[in-house]
Amino acid sequence: MANLRFEVVAEAFKKKPQETVTPAERPSEYFGKYVFNRAKMYKYLPCDVYEQLIDVMDNGTRLDRSIADAVAKGMKQWAVENGVTHYTHWFQPLTEGTAEKHDAFIEHDGKGGMIEEFSGKLLMQQEPDASSFPSGGIRNTFEARGYSAWDPTSPVFIIDDTLCIPTIFISYTGEALDYKAPLLRALHAVGTAAQAVCQYFYPDVRKVSCNLGWEQEYFLVDEGLYSARPDLLLTGRTLMGHDSAKNQQMDDHYFGTIPERVQAFMKDLEVQALELGIPCKTRHNEVAPNQFELAPIYEECNLAVDHNMLLMSLMKKVARRHSFRVLLHEKPYAGINGSGKHNNWSLTTDTGILLHAPGKTPEDNLRFLVFIVETLMAVYRHNGLLKASIMSATNAHRLGANEAPPAIISSFLGHQLSQLLEHIENADKETLLNVAGKQGLKLDIPEIPELLIDNTDRNRTSPFAFTGNRFEFRAVGSEANCASAMIVLNSAVAEALNSFKQRVDALIAGGEDKMSAIIDVIRDDVKTCKPIIFEGNGYCDEWKREAESRGLDCETSCPVVFDRYLDEESIGMFEKLNVMNRKELMARNEVKWETYTKRIQIEARVMGDLTMNHIIPVCTHYQSQLAKNVQSMYDIFPANKADELTSRNKKIIEEIAQRTQIIETGVEELVEARKVANRIESCREKAIAYHDTVAPKLEFIRRHIDKLELIVSDELWTLPKYRELLFIK
Ligand code: ADP
Ligand code: MG
Prior knowledge:
Layout: H1 4-14, H2 27-30, H3 38-44, H4 47-59, H5 65-81, E1 86-91, E2 99-104, E3 106-108, E4 114-116, H6 120-124, E5 125-126, E6 147-150, E7 157-159, E8 162-170, H7 180-198, E9 208-222, H8 223-227, H9 230-235, H10 260-275, E10 280-285, E11 291-296, E12 299-300, H11 301-321, E13 324-327, E14 341-349, E15 352-353, H12 362-381, H13 383-390, E16 411-412, H14 415-426, H15 429-432, E17 433-436, E18 440-443, H16 450-454, E19 464-466, E20 471-473, H17 482-509, H18 514-529, H19 541-549, H20 558-561, H21 568-576, H22 582-636, H23 639-645, H24 647-678, H25 683-711, H26 722-727
Adenosine-5'-diphosphate (ADP) is lined by residues 211, 213, 215, 282, 295-298, 344-346, 353, 469-470.
């Protein structure tokens, strides 16, 4: 019997690194080659059109329809010069990927021929027949009229022969059906709120924007091995597989030498990413075997989100060229580290980063503190919602498991900053603020030395850590659209800043001095948000108890965590900031619950199939071999001798019989649990049933399969094992 596993393993061992092309130019020269960036706008657009478009991009003014035709014309010219024949509105539906539908530029010219056409109207708006995108019922199929509209703050780009136009995707009645529309609204809210607070310190600040620097973790696996694992192929993770004897215990992978075949992949990927304007900066091996990371330089949040989506699809494409598959699932393998996507977040003015620590003046330090404390207030008030924003069927394997941020959101500040907050809380006000004659206000806020802050002992267990001039949200899943987390975080910070300003203004209106009012409010908030600050080990069990007593959200069930979106405080916040309304939130939650159910459903089906077609046949085959052997021993030896000599094989025969029996019963129960769950009408209740009754059975069945993997002859085992998936590169 041919064993596919041996074939693909042998093939994988033979693979050589792919040839890569080193561009003749330097990265700084080909960076953004396929992006219609400012330089190209300047070259291809009339002067006045260029200026109007820059105004739209920089100041969020409305794009005048009258210039759209001129913009489209310039874009088309540039695109055609680059061999482009098609265009597409590129958007981010509520599935985790991106969507596109290509149309050719060609139109009849009225003389029996064809011409290349691309109008302002086509650039600005389209109505993709997108009735099969998840919409939570907002857009029923009979009125499948979602439309996509250009987001001029994210530049168009070329992939192969297609001009891609970043767009928002909304229903005919104006509800957001994607991630980008609410993200843009949340960014607007936080920018406005932060700018207003900035005015206390720097009256000439004109604009505050949000930065995002993501770090993308991923696994690579040889394509042949991947194709021999139906579970990886269909669910993105291994549903079974015994630990490899060696995995990550030697700590020899992190920052290790990058294997040649991988290096070739990375090089190709980076060249293409740079050409698309993604500022790739860092690459390295991650903790688990065959796990890697790529991080660009941070960018404005909306653009960074687009670039992350683009990079993820680029990775998949480039990986194939190198006979790899990229695994973006948060937990493709049990027992070793999973993959996350750290989201480094900060706010910045047109004059500098707001979370940057030491200022030259006490006012600067106070500004710094205000933004730190109000971010903490946001995380404290909405810690459950923030968790919901990063929760998914796949990331649930990572959160709360023993090697990743726990399913509790807390913030790590480091010794320096924690001490400073304590000082603010405990010092009496006269010490903090004394009015000294002609010199005016003097703030007694100790300076924070830059070096010390930068070297803060980084607590790797914290899901939301302050790391010098930014917060690092580490619980985001590797497969997720960063927008989900960024919508919630920016909304929550906007709300906190608005509330801060309201209270300060009320005190000022009552006659209090500005700085004194700010200090009063900040001192209150430092006290309030204290429960969110946690400097200890987030992985230990005591923290779970402690967090519970602090009133932090400790729920771990994914479908129940989604409820946080529909808490009145959450709906109130989103509505007040104009980010999402109740109807949108309810619809989006339906999508979340349905997606959760579907993913577990698929896993359960694949588990059933694999068990019946691979595992049990292989095990019984081996069992018969052993049985034959036992039989023949009795033919050769006297019974008492044969008894002795066959005891080991008999034991194995028995263990196989018992475990396959348990597995079969398990699969029957799994099917039954699915049937029961499928009858449930409410998508929330159905998702909960899948979580409570279906998912645990997968784990139960797996345990027995993994034990069988250890005792069944290696020669017969058909599925590539962990040691092969993880160590062949
Ligand atoms: P780490 O030690 O966490 O791996 P890196 O130096 O690799 O840190 O940076 C991680 C990411 O954080 C990069 O994308 C970097 O550009 C980004 N980053 C740095 N400063 C800021 C900031 N002020 N705001 C947002 N992102 C930032
Ligand atoms: Mg980091």
